Hints:
- The protein is mainly α.
- It has a domain at 1-33.
- The chain contains two helices and no strands.
- It has helices spanning 10-32, 77-84.
- The radius of gyration is 34 Å and the shape is elongated.
Amino acid sequence: MLSNAHGVRLPAIRAAVRSRLCLFACLLPVLSNCATRSLSLDPAGGPSDPAAPVPELVYRSVSAGTTDYQPVGPAPWRDVNDRVAPGGRRAP
């Protein structure tokens, strides 16, 4: 028979742990339904409130605000770097 340093049998410990774990697993759904108030943080009352304000629907194209990029010819690298450099200054 297996036992630990204190002389307690390990199968008995395992059975006790298993039974407590099963009890906890069975009571968890029951105790979770004991909440008396809603945990919603929405001040308007949430989606189930028919009087909740609803923003107006506005159509926006999925491609709105995109820029069309076309291939361009090569440019002098020094001029391009100066144009995009912070402050727009030319380096010495």
